[in-house]
């Protein structure tokens, strides 16, 4: 199957956003991922344990052309580059609101 502007097929992209008071981290996948694995990726990226405060559902879903190039993670955990202008169906799976876990040394 050829994915492109003339084929009528669009790659399904699943967007997950993780946010704290310092900003956002956005992850893209070619399949629906579990929120626990997204949290693990956040911890790996910031090199700290996190506490999840809430998970908000995504609101925007549909066909779009990418304004900027993105990297997506495939089912075999391989990064794949998607160029700007590529048509995709974006599924916004939501935002994970998190904070940094503090040590219990003062208890």
Q: How many E strands?
A: 7
> What general form does the structure show?
elongated
- Helicity, as a percent range: 10-25%
Q: What is the H/E string?
A: EEHEEEEE
Biggest β-sheet strands, sense, barrel: 5 strands, mixed
Structural class comes to mainly beta
User: What is the count of helical runs?
Assistant: 1
Number of domains: 1
How large is the radius of gyration? 16 Å
- Uncertain runs are none
Question: Strand-residue fraction?
Answer: over 45%
Describe this structure in words.
The protein has 107 residues and is mainly beta. The protein has one domain. It has one helix spanning 35-46, and strands at 11-20, 23-29, 50-56, 61-65, 70-73, 79-82, 87-100. The strands form two sheets. Strands 1, 2, 3, 4 and 7 form a five-stranded mixed sheet that branches. Strand 5 and strand 6 (79-82) form a beta hairpin. It is elongated. It starts with 10 loop residues before the first strand and ends in a 7-residue tail after the last strand.
